[in-house]
Each structure stands twice: as structure tokens, then as C-alpha cells.
């Protein structure tokens, strides 16, 4: 804990909680004294990255004595070509988390209002609070983020930013392209919509909205951490209007990206065949996880992502017991933080053996949770 | 360029220049249409990382679908054991640049004064300006940073931070341990000394000061980018008092580090034999570079780092011509930004073939510069 009387910390730094958005599974493994049997809690892609991305990392390892290109030129050009837009609309960074932090720093001064859904991405909230912004939340509409209330609330409080993830984490739900396009048309003047599309590669046809890259109302976030299976490489990118993308150069850590990660992401992007295979494996794993849920009396929610959120039919205390018991049995899963969604557990897709380990552990975990409640 | 009228950027963001601390060599390579023959401009270690670090990266590549441990537990423990201190005094981050950014964010509010030397590390200055701090500079004493003037100036302006690098970049000079220890004793109350020891592994015996890790007046910065040859992996660490180290958790990007980089740094730290070999290669390369300088009528400055700063004996305009002509000949070097040090060029150590390429290109580059001036 920082000394709250240390006069060298800024008033803002002194005001911040010492909490962190997520505890890593490694910390839990150290606490239990052995590794997890199945790692299904962080929506990582246990199907792994493209073999070509792995080969690119092997080839790039010895060259790690060199700093990465601070402009990530080759990767940025490849991403631009992939989307059929100009590279001036693309900012590459060390994962969406870093890009969100930079964006909040650029747009949110202390006291500025920001709108998000109650129970949406904690790391976004961490950045807003960390730069002194004031969070205003709106409830989900059932298991869906509520675009109309988000934009309405933004107009009401004069928000600088609105955050929405489509598909959504932690509920796995999604809105179709038309709904998001309508939301964009309702973004108030002097506000920017942050459209987090971390899971978009795994969503059904018709989910990707058409938004012109120079549309001044939106910045989109994409990542190599989910479908591309490179969470540990830290590569994400933003798509937005040129002046906003250029503004990142005023605050970002220009040499912050690992050289090997640029090489990995470039190879991953070029292997769309692998991405197609992952999508098919994710669809099959979602079905399998849904079956496990139903076999155990849980209700699997429809998912447009690489995880399945399962309604345990009871309260947050019960679901927390289930997550705890699963953890003790060697199965790492997480759950939504906020009611009413915390009635659910959230299980990432993975290969058959991981799902089988989850299926084997779930009945006992539910019994344990029932006994404890 | 960001639109200076965009009402969604903060006043601070709008006030920042669009400049970046360094242009990467890759941008220069793209401009000249071919790669550099010798990459001796960024004080990278062209001797490469430990073969064991490369092997660790190969072994870790396929696991890049997993996020890295946000606590970097194993690496932090190993660093702590290496220094014989508790891991609570260690914060690991994505290179010193990231740690400096976090530190400035924690300590410097808009308008807060910060003291550094005129011509010292531009990226530190970038962070201070980026968070609204006010830079106060003191001149070097010849080719050395001036500890007494730095602390005196800090007292005068009420600085939150003092920055000093020992050994120094870009001059390659260093102070002995006793001088730095005396400097620590002069740090004013309510001020923190940032002791950047990026090059300390390459300095002569007697350079590492004794500073207790819980000394409240100092935070030290170390890196795997220089002697360990892992600039592209982005791994640095801070050593400081527990409350200050803990404060990083309030603002840092917990999942910001590449998983493969943690593995690489851990293996590199464990291979002290390789570090010893690199030190010997750096000493030999410094001698060789000094010889090349003298052969061409330049004055090599003594160096406690992995680069040699060479006094061209004329002004900044002349040295800039030399750097430009070397670049056109395929030799990437840099130079100090600020007078009077910009009379020099700065050449990184490297293997024989790279130094030979530099030696072959230098006479013509000097002739070109003389003709232009």
C-alpha cells in the first residue's frame, strides 16, 4: 500500500484505490500450490495462435536485441490492407488495455464524465478512474448492453466517452450491425464512442457494423488476443479518424511494443485460414460447453464470443462458490462482477480435454456450492 | 496532427507537441529504400541476448495464447534474489520508458517542477511534459551530469523529481558510487531521485552505489535492454521503497507485458556467464571504436556504457552532417541533441563487422561534412 501521506504522490494518485482489475490465474496457482488443470477463465484462445505466428516468433527471437519499429509500420500497413482503409486510421498498441489507457488520457480530464454499462469491462473503468474521470453507468437490458440508454445518458451528463463492447463481455451477447450503426448516429456532439470489438472475429455474420474510418464519432478497438490466440504477445489496434489516431503519438510509449509481438501479429493476420479453423473450433466448443451447462441444470446464454456465460439460477454468492469450488478442483473460470449478472459463471472455449475436465468437475462444484448456501 | 479544436481532447492533450522522442531506424531505412549495413545508433546490444534467453523464447512462443502473469512473480523473485533484497522492493514493467511514465504519472501533477540535465534522456522529458510537469534543466559540468547542481536546483524550485542517469547517456561518462551516495544525501524533502542505471552493468567496478532499497529518497531503474541484449522484449525494473513500488499498482497496465518477454528476461538473468562475455566484448568494442575515432581525428570520450561518444571538434551542424552522411552510407548512429554535446556523434558497440563497416564509412562521411560546412 502506498503511504497516503507521501507528499510526493499527486492528489489524484493518493485518491486511487490500490485494487487491480483482475487477479491473474498464476497467483491462484501459487496459492493452491499447483497449476490449474484447465485454464478457461480469461477468454484466452487455448487453441493457440497460428503455427505461422509461432514460427515467426521463433524466427524473430534472436533479433530481440533490437527495439521494435516504433511506428509498427509493416503491421499497420497489413492491418490497413486487411480492412481496405488507409494506415493513417490505424494505431497499433500493446493490447487494447494500453490503447484504452492512452485514449482516456487524451480525452478525460479530472472530473470529466464517462458512460459505460454497469458490469462492463473493469479495465476501462480502471483507466477512467485512474485519470480522474467520473463513471456514470446504465444497466444492461437483460443480458444485453443498452445502446439507447448509453447514448441518452451520455447526452444527459455531457460525457466525453461512451464505452460499449460488441460482442459483450462478460455476457457473450451481441447486437447486429444496424443497432450499432443507429447507436453511432445518436452519439452526442463532443462525445466519442469507444466500440470495443475484441470478440468481433468470433461473432455471427451481420455483426460488424459499417462505420467509415473517418467517422468522427467512433473509435474501434480490435485485438490479436482473442481469436488470433496471442493474448500474451500484447497486440491490439484502434481504428479511427486520422486526427484522433495521430493524437496517440503525443502520449503513447513509442517503443513499448515487443519486436517479436509485431512479427507474431503480422504472421497471424496473414493466416486467415487458421482464423477460420479457430472460429469453427470455437463454435463447436460453445456447443459442447452449452451441453455441459444443460446437463448440470444451468442455462447457457447464447454467445457471440469465445466463452459461454452460464446462468446458475441463483445469486452472486452461489456463483462465487461455484467458481471457488471449480478453482479448487483445478478449473480456472471467472464470473461477472456485478448483479444481476453475477448469477452466472463464465467459461472460455478450449480444446476437448479442457472442456472434459470442466465437465468432470462441475457436478461436484455445484454440490459444494449448494451445501455452502 | 490532432485537430487543435477537437473539444474531446483534454486541454493538456491539446497543449502537447506532436513530436516524438526518437525516430526509429526502420523509418530511416524505409526512406532510404534499403536496410542499414550497421545498426549502431540506439545502444542496443548487437552481441545479442544469451542463447539461453533465445531458447526460452522459443520454448515460450507456443504458449503466447496465455496472458503473462500480471505480477511477473517468478521474474520479480529472481531479480530480488539477484540483488539480495525483498521482491516488495521491485516493480517489473515494459522497459524503463514505461516505468518512467508510470512514475511521472504518480508524482507529477500539472505545474509540478521536475529537474534534469540539459541534454539528458528525452523520453523522461516527454513523460514529464506529457503529464503537465514543468522541466527545469541544469547544464552538464563538461561531459558529466552535475549532481550538486541538480539537487541544488531541485531545492530551489521545489522539484518533485530529479532525474540522473549513471552512467550517463548520451555522453558515456559516469560518477563513482561515493558521488551518487552523496547526491542522495542532498535530495530535498518532498523530492524523489530517479537514478537511471540502464548502463550500470557495463560500468567499471566501484560505480554501483550502496543505497538501501527502503531508502525513501531514491528509485532506481534497471533494464534488460542494454547489456542483457533484450531491448525488443521490453523488460525493465524499478528498485525502491515498498510504498512507492506498491503505488505503481494503482496506475500500471497490469497485463501489459509480453509473456515471452518474462521468460526471456528470467533466462537472461540466470545466465550471468553470458553477461560477463558481453561485458568483455563491449570493452573490446569500445577500444576498437576509440581507435577508429582517433584514426579519423576525432576524440573518443571515456565510456562506462556500450557506446562511445566521439567529439568531432566542431559544432552541432557539422556533427549532424556526419550522422547524415553515415546514414546515407548505411551506418545508423545518433548524436546528442543539445549544445555543447551536439559537437559529438554517438556510436554503439557491436561486433567486428559492424565496427569495420563504420570505420570504412567514416572518412568519407567526415569529408562530406567538411565540404558541406
From TrEMBL, chains A, B:
Gene3D superfamilies: Aspartate Aminotransferase, domain 1 (3.90.1150.10), Type I PLP-dependent aspartate aminotransferase-like (Major domain) (3.40.640.10). It catalyses: L-histidinol phosphate + 2-oxoglutarate = 3-(imidazol-4-yl)-2-oxopropyl phosphate + L-glutamate. Residues 39-361 form the Aminotransferase class I/classII large domain. It is an enzyme of class 2 (transferase). The keyword Transferase applies. Belongs to the class-II pyridoxal-phosphate-dependent aminotransferase family. Histidinol-phosphate aminotransferase subfamily. This is histidinol-phosphate transaminase. It comes from Loktanella atrilutea.
